[in-house]
Amino acid sequence: MVVTPTLSRSRRLRQTPYSDRVEACGAKAYTVYNHMLLATVFRSLEEDYQHLCENVQIWDVSCERQVEITGPDAAALTQLMTCRDLSKAKYGQCFYAPLVDENGGMVNDPIILKLAEDRYWLSIADSDVLLWAKGLASGRGMDVKVFEPDVFPLAVQGPMAEEVMAKVFGEKVRDIKFFRFAELFYQNHRMVVARSGWSRQGGFEIYLDNSALALDLWDRIWDVGKDYNIFAGCPNGIERVEGGLLSYGNDMSSENTPYECGLGKYVNLEADIEFVGRKALEIARDQGLGRKICNIRFDKRLETSVSKSWDVLNVGGDHIGNISSGCNSKKMGGFIAIAMLDQEFWDEGTIVLVQTPLGDLTGTVANFPFD
Amino acid sequence: MVVTPTLSRSRRLRQTPYSDRVEACGAKAYTVYNHMLLATVFRSLEEDYQHLCENVQIWDVSCERQVEITGPDAAALTQLMTCRDLSKAKYGQCFYAPLVDENGGMVNDPIILKLAEDRYWLSIADSDVLLWAKGLASGRGMDVKVFEPDVFPLAVQGPMAEEVMAKVFGEKVRDIKFFRFAELFYQNHRMVVARSGWSRQGGFEIYLDNSALALDLWDRIWDVGKDYNIFAGCPNGIERVEGGLLSYGNDMSSENTPYECGLGKYVNLEADIEFVGRKALEIARDQGLGRKICNIRFDKRLETSVSKSWDVLNVGGDHIGNISSGCNSKKMGGFIAIAMLDQEFWDEGTIVLVQTPLGDLTGTVANFPFD
């Protein structure tokens, strides 16, 4: 049985400027992400999924906190934090960028926005990158200001997202390419709008930096969206596992290198850049991979959920990895999962034994992401 | 109405080695603390409170994660992180220590344990101190290892705690003074045991560093405790507000200096020590305090809870501060709260207007902590 306990509310689990609307739309469950509330279900995981894939949803993703780095050393500090080469980064681009520590372990996997030559936003996953950045800056005596600005991202996701956004921000929205942003006006207030979002259904993220406008903006999107069957949504557990979107803290941690997470293409050791963990990642590259992120498929639904790591064994009973996330997928014909598996067992089609809350079950290894 | 939503479970919200027992004892609600589950209520806040004050409780406080700092520069790095003078720190002492950033803002308020000349544990509140410490160490090129060890604190709290602990760890436990620790044996395994804990009812914290022993240790304490009416518990919202225990993220944040939090005695500017934020705190000291932590009392129960900041106004309607935590207290004859108030209004007895979810209500300022 999956226990669904109550979440105790406190100021420490921060609300957002949109919280009233999220509650009014009937959010059934929440998680905590960057010390902030994030809804996880409105109608049901399955209904939310279906609606997202066919319509348009408005997501309160305020918990994607920004770490703002400004000042003469802003570019150097931002580069110091990621193994991805940012030397050719331009205004208007979004960079998915693994942040690594001195051991080459993942610290976070933000999207980095270059707002100006001396101004960056790191739109972060669930860890206090602010402290990491401030520690590095203080330790090195860098000439930067590092802080969490009052920015509260709102995502508009789904196939009808562009139609809705065009009515709110104007036709210019259509010109924004994938992983690019523009600064557009809403009520005479300029804000960053990017074609991005934590789904594979297309859409935008609005980086609202004026919380006084929050409910107004939500309501405007909602009103316009009615013609497109808009509803409130949130990052969806089914959609993201099907789509191969990794979740920091679930599928990867500081125990993992970007290589293990399938993010090797963002490790630009060939570039002449300085970043923390470079030496460790050079060693990791030379040693080769011992384990990596894979998928595992089951041939039926499983009436459970992955609330903690599930051990994966080979047919001989040896521990060969673990499952970190999973869901029932109608599209895939059964339960699907994300797993970190040892080398000898990561080939597609390998049969493995998984210790689930329902007992030991047979699964089949699949490529990550699913084709 | 206070909404009590469901908490979505995922691996990212880490379970602990004691989670099975916590669930079995009927934990009704949880919070998330350092990316880990922390129970908040078992029977009811009031029943848990009464039981804690009269008996003994066992608390899974694994979420008090340790940041371990070892190596030749361990003492220097640990000192660099706190304004409290650690130069005379000795093995066996626990130090409540504000950590501050370059602006003198609170980063965390851990208890620091000096385990050896070159080995410290920071037993932290809810922020990723690990990243702060690693950033500073990396930035300065310090010769240290900084990591989160597999330590899972278990607290035994309440007036009968010493009796139970003596039966589990032997009579030596009685010799441990307040905020001191000793290394004692359980099943031939040496572990740190401190007389400390997040209540004012007395008790101990066991820093279990072998999760394989977790359930065994829990069960042993439980069995011994039966004679003393033991039950599962957790940091209690009533007891801690009555007792004046501040909660990082609720009552204080990086927006606050230690002075504002009433922690001035831990700001040892008179000592010849180097720490981040020293200059900022010198300026803060010289400028004097503009606001500080106070209590506010209401003369009746309030059927609500503080799930977000409540604004506090003076009788003229000007904003003068905010309430960050609160609870109904039978002992104090009504609802009591912790607030940050501007200087002109922090005197005991000042009448203030508080914007609560139940409407505007009159409260009376009281000293922090309550006498």
Question: Explain this structure to me?
Answer:
Two copies of one chain form a homodimer. By secondary structure, chain A is an alpha+beta fold. Among the domains of chain A are: about 20-65 and about 150-240, Gyrase A, domain 2 (2-Layer Sandwich), CATH 3.30.1360; about 290-370, Aminomethyltransferase beta-barrel domains (Elongation Factor Tu (Ef-tu), domain 3, Beta Barrel). Chain A is built from eight helices and 22 strands. Chain A has helices at about 20-25, 45-55, 75-80, 130-140, 160-170, 215-225, 235-245, 280-285, and strands spanning about 5, 30-35, 35-40, 55-60, 65-70, 95, 100, 105-110, 110-115, 120-125, 145, 150-155, 180-185, 190-195, 205-210, 230-235, 290-295, 310-315, 320-330, 335-340, 350-355, 360-365. Chain A has a six-stranded mixed β-sheet with strand order 13-14-15-12-4-16, sandwiched between helices. A six-stranded antiparallel beta barrel of chain A has the order 17-20-19-18-21-22. In chain A, strand 19 and strand 20 form a beta hairpin. In chain A, helix 5 (about 160-170) packs across helix 6. The model of chain A has no long low-confidence stretch (mean pLDDT about 95). The interface between A and B is large, with 53 and 53 residues. Strand 2 (about 30-35) of chain A pairs parallel with strand 1 of chain B, so a sheet runs across the interface.
Short key terms for the protein model shown above:
homodimer; 371 residues; alpha+beta; Elongation Factor Tu (Ef-tu), domain 3; 6-stranded mixed sheet; 6-stranded antiparallel beta barrel; 22 strands
